TrEMBL record:
Protein name: Transmembrane ascorbate-dependent reductase CYB561
Compartments in which it is found: Cytoplasmic vesicle, Secretory vesicle, Chromaffin granule membrane
GO CC annotations, alphabetized: chromaffin granule membrane; lysosomal membrane
Membrane topology summary: Multi-pass membrane protein
Catalytic reactions on record: monodehydro-L-ascorbate radical(out) + L-ascorbate(in) = monodehydro-L-ascorbate radical(in) + L-ascorbate(out)
Keyword DNA-binding listed: no
Gene3D superfamilies hit by this protein: 1.20.120.1770
Length: 150
């Protein structure tokens, strides 16, 4: 039996909202890249610029790709559920991997420079966000593997 939410008609303005959200997300990614390139010297892994990988990866992974993963079920309402589940899962996997690269970059940078880890409120809040995202990701993945559990 289908739920009421899946039978509800698509709002007429939804494509405009989605287009606006994509434009806004790409603008944030581009502005972060421009900020890192113009004012922070760019990004590189094996140099002092390794720290700059962190903000770019976090914006791409935890803001843009995660937001796109959340929109999949609204945008592709008429597609097969299996297809949308796979796309939703892939976007979350990419978001997780990119965010993990950003996390590794900042910890590796601190280790190379001899800076202490987790010394600010920003770092503790960031770890909390990442841990909660990981828990949510693992629970969601388990329900994806065992759909009868839901």
């Amino acid at each position: 039996m289908e739920s009421q939410a899946s039978m509800a008609p698509t709002p007429r303005a939804l494509p405009y909202y989605v287009a606006f959200s994509q434009l806004l997300g790409l603008t944030v990614v581009a502005m972060t890249g421009a900020w890192l390139g113009l004012y922070r010297g760019g990004i590189a892994w094996e140099s002092a610029l390794q720290f700059n990988v962190h903000p770019l990866c976090m914006v791409i992974g935890l803001v843009f790709l995660q937001g796109d993963a959340l929109l999949v079920y609204r945008v592709f309402r008429n597609e097969a559920k299996r297809t949308t589940k796979i796309l939703h899962g892939l976007l979350h996997v990419f978001a997780f991997i990119i965010a993990l690269v950003g996390l590794v970059a900042v910890f590796d940078y601190h280790r190379k420079k001899g800076y202490p880890d987790l010394y600010s409120l920003h770092s503790w809040c960031g770890i909390l966000v990442f841990v909660l995202y990981l828990v949510q990701w693992l629970v969601g993945f388990s329900f994806f593997l065992f759909p009868g559990a839901s």
